[in-house]
Design goal:
By secondary structure, the chain is an alpha+beta fold. Helices cover about 35% and strands about 20% of the residues. It has helices at about 40-50, 55-65, 70-75, 110-115, 120-130, 140-150, 175-180, 185-190; strands at about 5-15, 20-25, 30-35, 85, 95. The strands form 2 sheets. It has a 3-stranded antiparallel sheet with strand order 1-2-3, with helices on one face. The chain has a two-stranded antiparallel ribbon with strand order 4-5. A hairpin with a 5-residue loop joins β4 (about 85) and β5. It is globular. Residues about 1-15 and about 200-205 have low confidence and may be disordered.
Length: about 200
């Protein structure tokens, strides 16, 4: 719960022209001055309208924090592993694939996009294991061993969308972001670990 110590909200344009609501807040992390609370308000408003997506948004947050334990607890915490549910306009319940969820408040990024952007290789490996058709031999032995230790079970991927194919709002796959960032991701790109695959076929780019 936020504990504002100064209710001096400032609404205006940020350095990149985005609207902001700035305030000073005091919480467990201490005093934060000039905190932009607008994204928090937007997310809470969205979750009030779509509470069924709370689990999905927590998943993306864990991907950004590289919290492997929390990710696995979340996706294995229900009978249908890796699934949440939503209700359509007719009142019918339909599953939400948490592993392939795209953030409507964050440029339609998937967990893999988030992992790449934040430099989290362990999360990227986990998502490739659980939500892609990357060949088993492409995974380092220590990754397979860690997955077995953590009981991260790979399901049959036939008929499922390979997470590497999914594009964000700027039409970028996770591989595109890796190419932009370079550094540790250069090897991933070179070895085509993030190469989009549709129905087992690598499209010609």
């Amino acid at each position: 719960m936020w504990s504002p110590i100064q209710l001096s909200f400032i609404v205006g344009a940020g350095s990149i022209g985005a609207e902001q609501i700035l305030c000073n807040v005091n919480n467990e992390g201490g005093l934060q001055e000039g905190f932009d609370i607008l994204p928090v308000l937007k997310e809470e408003s969205y979750l009030k309208a779509f509470p069924e997506e709370r689990k999905c948004r927590a998943f993306l947050e864990f991907c950004g924090e590289s919290d492997i334990g929390a990710i696995l607890d979340l996706i294995t915490g229900e009978e249908d592993e890796g699934l949440s549910t939503s209700v359509d306009r007719e009142g019918a319940t339909k599953p939400i694939d948490v592993l392939r969820y795209q953030d409507p408040l964050g440029s339609m990024s998937t967990g893999l996009h988030v992992a790449i952007q934040n430099g989290h290789e362990e999360v990227a490996w986990l998502l490739l294991l659980l939500a892609s058709s990357l060949e088993p031999q492409a995974f380092p032995p220590d990754v397979i061993q860690a997955a077995e230790t953590l009981r991260a079970k790979r399901e049959e991927q036939t008929g499922k969308v390979d997470i590497r194919v999914i594009e964000d709002a700027r039409n970028r796959t996770a591989e595109d972001i890796a190419k932009e960032l370079g550094g540790k991701w250069d090897e991933w790109v070179r070895l085509e670990r993030l190469k989009p695959v549709v129905d087992g076929i690598v499209p010609v780019m």
